[in-house]
Write a structure and sequence with these properties.
Length: 298
């Protein structure tokens, strides 16, 4: 089996496991088995964490043979152990290792939250599961490609990752507003969760594209705080219609990231700015025009 086939098989396995796992969560919450739902969710998340660590270790470990110069067996074992784990001491590798967990973590718990909020809506649950599985597939495909290239970025795969990132952002924002409404959390929880998700998504995108400057991260923090304020506004005005409210935050995120991305790559033009503004305003206008702000839960 060649490298390309290995990537396909590996991505297929993790995607199928997570797809079936989300289907299991859907059935459990439909049967109102909340503790079992939470237990299975933690096991699935642990499997995902271990799988990412395994793939990271598999691609970046030092495969050079151990020196047999020493005749003492304990020295051979020590040298083999140190050399085997040497890549975990490489700061560049560790930064990528931590960054690989951002999208899968946010996506998994967002999908679990949306399933929890809709226990008796099978059609919606299937849509959530299919979108999540697709985003998982795109993310892991990018991770495999990135690792096999020894952390070398590729523009085509970065575009694929961008699609996954938008799906993750939507589910995350919907999950935050929905869970906070369901459990009647205060607005400060909505604010800080939105800030955290926005910042980590921006950080992941900046890191993947190689834009690692302090002033850029400062702008990401400022934008995350602004997103938190918009999230609070959406939380108060949309309440239980969290699936629509998430589109407001997604349109804002996509517009700002589009501006930022093209500016940093020095491809920013007035035409690109107009395209992002028109698309963002179109989405927001449709949402505002069709939303019933007087709707209440009785």
């Amino acid at each position: 089996m060649n490298t390309h086939q290995n990537k396909i098989l590996s991505n297929f396995i993790i995607t199928v496991v997570l797809f079936l796992g989300l289907e299991t969560l859907s059935v459990l919450i439909g049967l109102n088995q909340i503790w079992e739902f939470l237990s299975v969710a933690w096991y699935l998340f642990a499997f995902q964490v271990i799988w990412i660590a395994f793939m990271f270790d598999l691609h970046l470990k030092d495969s050079r043979p151990v020196s047999l110069a020493s005749v003492q067996f304990r020295h051979i074992l020590r040298d083999a152990f140190v050399q085997r784990l040497r890549h975990f001491g490489n700061f560049q590798y560790l930064r990528h290792f931590a960054n690989y967990y951002v999208l899968p973590t946010i996506l998994f718990w967002s999908a679990a939250a949306l399933l929890f909020l809709n226990p008796f809506r099978p059609e919606l649950k299937q849509v959530v599961i299919l979108i999540s599985a697709f985003a998982f597939c795109l993310n892991f495909a990018h991770m495999h490609e990135h690792l096999s290239r020894k952390l070398s970025a590729n523009s085509a795969w970065l575009r694929i990752l961008s699609v996954a990132k938008l799906l993750v952002a939507y589910e995350a924002y919907a999950g935050i507003i929905g869970i906070c409404w369901y459990f009647a959390y205060p607005t400060k929880v909505v604010f800080w969760l939105t800030v955290a998700v926005t910042f980590f998504l921006m950080h992941q995108a900046l890191f993947a594209h190689g834009f690692q400057k302090s002033r850029v991260y400062l702008f990401a923090i400022i934008f995350a705080l602004f997103s938190g304020l918009i999230g609070v506004w959406a939380f108060h005005n949309w309440t239980y219609q969290y699936l629509t409210a998430a589109l407001i935050l997604l349109a804002l995120y996509n517009t700002v990231w589009g501006f930022m991305h093209h500016y940093l790559e020095k491809t920013f033009t007035s035409k690109i700015a107009l395209e992002y503004l028109v698309l963002g305003l179109l989405v927001v206008s449709i949402i505002l025009a069709t939303h019933n702000f007087a709707a209440q839960v009785i």
